[in-house]
Design goal:
8-stranded mixed sheet; about 35% helix; 5-stranded mixed β-barrel; single chain; alpha+beta; about 25% strand
């Protein structure tokens, strides 16, 4: 039974009254176990919008949905009903109602889910409506729907009771609709491009494939600690080693880190791996995928987000991190520039303190601190240092630099991809460096993974890999600055 102790006095009265109505309805044909052969409300609007104002028809249809409002004016009662596709007005005239139908209407409340049938008409004011001849209650709402949502307190309530938010807030419904459409379109594109959708473990013996702090749990039967995955990467690459050439996975990943506007402890990634391609092939694929999604959504390529406007027209800019830093500070820094000379001449001049031990890490730190947040238009930033890219292949032309990119827009990272490291000796050395950092207290550093190294020793073909952040992409498409808006049920602190 519902926790009525949480209700105010007036809410308790409404609750008790509606329970009485439930008892009265139990003796009628209400509360069937199903209600089939109803039309979608959007189809009724699409097929009959051309009616003249005041015109009535003999076309009979049935609809089902939730009652949003009830308005009585003398002999006429107007009822707004909403299904998953739209809203329509029901019209009930006392002159035409039999006793049974009149009783059902009297026992019906806002929030109830009803099934109804009648003839299609258009009111004199031009609103397409259904003049009802039958109505039954399919499910009773014992609590009243909220009327308005505003202010910080209600924003919290919206997320805690998202089901109510979706009923009364059309913008919230459109946002979540867009999210689900984007997931569908990602899958459509990837499959059409020859990729196979696969599954890899969510519960892993080692948290690998990314630099992040994991959630830890314990498996009692095996008596071992296990981890919610921070990435599916290492298992997806094992599939490539096993003979699959193009694989992808859409799923949740978990990182035990802070929560803010763009970070959630549980978020959705699309990761893909393609044999016999490199970082440039991956960038091409990301562009083609995003172009497909935007075109299928009929979305404007001028996108507004965080009070800024970005041009998502294709192709997207590709630029080296070294060039971005050089342009920003009006100084030339290359992968092989002398670190001591840069520190003495450049950092001193700009009064910048930096303890980086390589030129690559210096450029990486400067990019993160001064440039990343200011990238508005979609931009592939390339040439990441080896030290910050433990799974990316080193460039043959630029020592210390990897064939890696990150895609940025509106100052946020949308995707991360690279030519995968296939040398098991180099990979083992890099993971040992990460393990040393972990031993020194870095909780986000990567663990050693001898099983993955052994898999690499059987031969990973040249491979291009990608991680694509679905949540942030949807945030931009729907102009929502908080990641909580684009997740159907975001995580929140307990109320008490």
């Amino acid at each position: 039974d519902i926790n009525v102790t949480e209700l105010s006095k007036s809410e308790k009265e409404i609750y008790d009254l509606r329970r009485e109505k439930v008892e009265k309805l139990k003796g009628t044909e209400s509360f069937p176990t199903y209600y089939k052969n109803a039309s979608f409300i959007s189809d009724i609007h699409a097929n009959h919008q051309s009616l003249d104002n005041g015109e009535q028809t003999d076309i009979s249809v049935a609809v089902r949905g939730r009652v949003l409002s009830i308005r009585s004016f003398g002999k006429l009662t107007f009822i707004d009903v909403k299904d998953s596709t739209g809203k329509i007005q029901l019209l009930a005239s006392k002159d035409d109602l039999d006793e049974k139908l009149e009783e059902h209407i009297e026992l019906m409340d806002v929030g109830d889910i009803v099934g109804t049938s009648g003839s299609i008409m258009k009111t004199k004011k031009g609103e397409l409506s259904l003049k009802i001849s039958n109505l039954i209650v399919l499910s009773k709402s014992l609590r009243t729907l909220p009327e308005k949502w505003h202010g910080l307190k209600d924003k919290e309530t919206r997320f805690r009771q998202r089901y109510l938010d979706l009923i009364v807030n059309d913008d919230a419904k459109k946002t979540i609709d867009t999210r689900f459409k984007v997931l569908k379109l990602i899958r459509e594109f990837m499959v059409s491009d020859g990729f196979i959708e696969v599954e890899t473990p969510t519960l892993q013996p080692k948290a690998g494939g990314a630099i992040a702090k994991p959630f830890v749990t314990h498996h009692n039967a095996m008596s071992i600690d296990m981890f919610l995955r921070i990435a599916p990467e290492l298992y997806l690459k094992r599939l490539i080693i096993g003979g699959y050439e193009k694989v992808f996975e859409v799923g949740k990943v978990f990182r035990n880190e802070g929560i803010d506007q763009t970070h959630s402890p549980e978020f959705t990634m699309m990761e893909s791996y393609e044999a016999y391609t490199d970082v440039n092939g991956v960038m091409d694929m990301v562009e083609n995928m995003c172009e497909y999604i935007l075109s299928q959504l009929n979305h404007d390529l001028k996108i507004e987000f965080t009070e800024k406007e970005a041009d998502f027209s294709f192709p997207w800019k590709r630029i080296s991190m070294f060039d971005l830093v050089s342009e920003h500070f009006d100084v030339e820094i290359k992968h092989n520039s002398d670190l001591k000379k840069i520190k003495e001449e450049f950092l001193t001049k700009h009064k910048i303190e930096n303890e980086s031990k390589t030129t690559g890490m210096l450029v990486y730190d400067l990019f993160e601190k001064y440039i990343e947040d200011n990238i508005v238009n979609p931009t592939f930033v390339t040439d990441y240092p080896k030290e910050a890219s433990p799974f990316a292949r080193e460039s043959k032309e630029k020592n210390g630099v990897t064939e890696r990119f990150e895609l940025f827009a509106f100052g946020s990272e949308l995707a991360n991809g690279f030519s995968e490291l296939i040398d098991p000796v180099d990979q083992e050395a890099r993971l040992k460096e990460q393990a040393q950092k972990k031993a020194e207290g870095d909780e986000e550093a990567h663990v050693e993974d001898s099983d993955y190294i052994e898999a690499l020793e059987y031969g990973l073909p040249p491979t291009g890999g990608l991680g694509f952040g679905v949540d942030r992409f949807v945030m931009m498409l729907t102009n929502n600055e908080s990641i909580r808006e684009v997740i159907a049920f975001p995580h929140l602190k307990p109320e008490n």
